[in-house]
């Protein structure tokens, strides 16, 4: 929780890095204790990176099924050990799928902002959790903030930065080839708006921000399964009609 410095009366709020790492540790503990948990993520200010003193943490948990009423489901999960106050939403898998089909209002916000921290795929070191990494993506002179997740594929791409390429549109998807070859890892045939992904079939970096020619609903659908590697902080309208002749990806946060 927030603490006061021994030499100052000022309240010191935990920074985003500490909060995100705590969420990953919390997600691991929750998944080990509750076998019906399918996914754990966070959204809101810590996902958008506009948090500040007093910001709480917005969590979302997807479970296989439950007979508990919506307003009581969060009582099953102890959030008191997290470094900031937390609000928790718990959906069943079928409820979450229905939300994704709405495509507007709060469901769209959840789809666009949620950063998933479970399931994770890095099992290389027992007890270790790979940290998310900030990157900046420049497209047609416009700079976008983004964050890579804790997958091995994301780490391989981060290690290869900086990268430069020319890209193409495929509906509301931007894709471009990168000199990274990664093994298939948690492949998905449908993703969320704002997802960054690696397409193993073409060794491509993909940015999804709406429907593609393969979509069967309002959700983005890749040409073939991809590994989600992170999130971009951008509205769909800001990613359309850009000059894709020069795309740059670099480590660090944009100004």
List the helices and strands and how they pair.
Layout: E1 3-4, E2 11-12, H1 16-33, E3 37-43, H2 45-48, E4 57-63, E5 86-92, H3 93-102, H4 105-113, E6 115-118, E7 133-139, E8 142-148, H5 152-160, E9 163-165, E10 168-169, E11 173-177, E12 187-188, E13 195-199, E14 204-208, E15 226-232, H6 236-239, E16 247-251
Parallel strand pairs: 4-5
Antiparallel strand pairs: 1-2, 3-4, 3-6, 7-8, 7-16, 8-15, 9-16, 10-11, 11-14, 12-15, 13-14, 13-15
Q: Which of globular, elongated, flat, extended, rod-shaped describes the shape?
A: globular
Total count of strands:
16
**Strand portion:** 25-35%
Helicity, as a percent range:
10-25%
CA radius of gyration: 18 Å
CATH top-level class of the largest domain: Mainly Beta
CATH topology name of the largest domain: Cyclophilin
Gross CATH architecture of the largest domain: Beta Barrel
Query: Which structural category do the helix and sheet elements fall into?
Result: alpha+beta
- Give the distance, in angstroms, between the N- and C-terminal Cα atoms: 28 Å
Low-pLDDT windows of residues:
3-8, 121-128
User: How does the major sheet shape up?
Assistant: 10 strands, antiparallel
Number of domains: 2
Number of separate helices: 6
């Amino acid at each position: 929780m927030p603490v006061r410095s021994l030499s100052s009366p000022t309240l010191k709020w935990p920074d985003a890095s500490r909060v995100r790492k705590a969420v990953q540790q919390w997600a691991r503990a929750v998944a080990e204790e509750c076998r019906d948990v399918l996914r754990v993520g966070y959204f809101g200010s810590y996902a958008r990176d506009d948090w500040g003193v007093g910001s709480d943490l917005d969590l979302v948990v997807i479970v296989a099924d439950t007979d508990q009423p919506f307003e009581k489901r969060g009582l099953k999960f102890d959030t008191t050990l997290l470094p900031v106050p937390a609000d928790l939403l718990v959906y069943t898998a079928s409820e979450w799928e229905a939300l994704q089909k709405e495509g507007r209002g709060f469901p769209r916000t959840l789809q666009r902002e949620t950063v998933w921290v479970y399931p994770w795929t890095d099992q290389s070191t027992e007890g270790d959790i790979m940290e998310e990494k900030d990157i900046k993506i420049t497209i047609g002179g416009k700079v976008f903030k983004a964050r890579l997740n804790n997958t091995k594929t994301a780490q391989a791409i981060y290690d290869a930065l900086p990268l430069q390429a020319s890209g193409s549109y495929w509906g509301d998807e931007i894709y471009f080839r990168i000199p990274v070859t990664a093994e298939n890892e948690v492949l998905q045939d449908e993703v969320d708006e704002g997802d960054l992904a690696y397409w193993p079939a073409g060794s491509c970096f993909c940015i999804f921000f709406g429907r593609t020619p393969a979509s069967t609903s309002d959700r983005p659908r890749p040409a073939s399964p991809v590994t989600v590697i992170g999130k971009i902080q951008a509205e769909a309208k800001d990613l359309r009609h850009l000059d894709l002749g020069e795309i740059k990806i670099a480590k660090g946060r944009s100004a």
